[in-house]
Specification:
This protein is of the alpha/beta class. 39% of the residues lie in helices and 19% in strands.
Length: 227
């Protein structure tokens, strides 16, 4: 990034919530004539949510509403008969029974068949076993980038700052291939590569009294070549 970027300062999940909410709202039919590019991007993003659930976005959007923190859900998007539960995370993971609880609340209101549950994650974590077990589909940074890549000339500082910020995360995670001294994100990139090559293992931050470290674990049997 070659200029000040608001999202390098507003790094909390609430700031990301606000951007996602702002972008999605451009798909609202009442804003049809505001910004066609942002509307197309918002519809593309929503369409990806539907694809994760093996559904198709309605061709005609007759009902559209967005809510923040309804029953503590980060973002609740309603399109026609569908309700999309969006749990937005940056670096943190889900905790406790929050995801199951959110899904159950909305299922009781609109029926299980009309619920889409999306775990929207812009940073990385070792695995998504818990989130998937809780009935959520994973919308990861690479999926987000695949959407943003389609929009290269939108005249919006908000949109372009967020896009540049997401790209900067991706670039730093992958920078382990050429940097000599690694930071946290570089270790994440290396561990993601290692996890793919080994097809096993988990990684994460390991705290200790000396300041902690990034660790990778894959074998707990003494008869393996590495232990």
């Amino acid at each position: 990034m070659h200029k000040p970027n608001i999202f390098t300062y507003a790094t909390k999940e609430l700031s990301q919530d606000a951007f996602i909410f702002w972008l999605l709202d451009h798909a609202n039919p009442k804003y049809n004539n505001i910004n066609q590019d942002l509307k197309n991007c918002a519809l593309n993003l929503i369409s990806e949510f539907f694809k994760l659930e093996n559904k198709e976005i309605p061709k005609n959007i007759e009902k559209f509403s967005l809510s923040k923190q309804y029953q503590n859900i980060d973002i609740l998007l309603k399109i026609n008969n569908y309700s999309i539960v969006i749990e937005d995370k940056t670096a943190a993971k889900s905790h406790g029974d929050q995801l199951t609880r959110y899904r159950n609340i909305i299922s009781s209101e609109v029926g299980e068949e009309n619920v889409l549950a999306i775990f929207f994650k812009t940073h990385d974590q070792s695995n998504y076993k818990k989130e998937i077990a809780d009935g959520f589909k994973i919308f990861s940074r690479d999926r987000l980038i695949s959407v943003l890549d389609n929009y290269t000339s939108i005249p919006s500082d908000i949109f372009n700052d967020f896009k540049d910020y997401i790209y900067s995360i991706e670039n730093e995670v992958n920078a382990y291939v050429h940097k000599e001294e690694w930071n946290h994100k570089n270790w994440v990139g290396f561990f993601k590569y290692l996890q793919k090559e080994l097809n096993r293992g988990d990684w994460g931050y390991v705290p200790n009294q000396n300041g902690g470290f990034m660790g990778y674990w894959w074998a707990f049997q003494k008869n393996e070549s590495c232990w």
